[in-house]
Amino acid sequence: MVKEDQPKVAGPSPVVLGTNGPRAQKIQQVEKLAEGFKESQAIIFSDYSGLSVLEMTDLRKRLSQLAATGGPSPRGEAGRHGRGAELKVVKNTLIKLAAQKSKLSLPDLTGPTAVLLSKKADPIESIKTLVSAFKEKGTVKFGVFEGDLLATEGVLELAHLPARAVLEGRLVTVLVSPITKFALILKGTQRSLVTVLTEVGRVRGGGFSG
Known about the structure:
The protein has helices at 24-39, 53-64, 92-101, 123-134, 152-159, 164-203; strands spanning 42-47, 85-89, 114-118, 139-145, 148-151.
């Protein structure tokens, strides 16, 4: 039983195209957006209305230059072969159509919406770049991260995580450190054993060669 004060999560109501449906350009836009939904590790929906045209252009450029490792693409080029992330300004009705086409359940959207699609780029780095550019001028509405629906707070928490490359580096350090210490211990034990055997050999009048 659902409590009255508990927010209800429901999928969007179906959008039916009438006789005056979207033009071919809009249909193509919906298809590309649906494809982007399926390919993206992170999808962030936000209100960009506080940003100027120049700021939006700069943000799009920075996102497009994110490579799969989370760093800029070679020679600062916009992501080739699907690298980088995209920021698209899309009408809410078209977003709803694309979500239905890609079987993605989203809350209802209101107001101007920009969609961040992080395909092969580091999704954490993409989110960090978006949130950093927004500051007080933009607002994150919600997001989808690796298939999970996140509220605004969840997206902002991801923005404060280290980039994936940094996390992987830390993981390697954690995995390697015990092995390194164990190797040093074995090396020290070997030296101690050689020293003892050498001393025993000297006392007995013989010798020991390790």
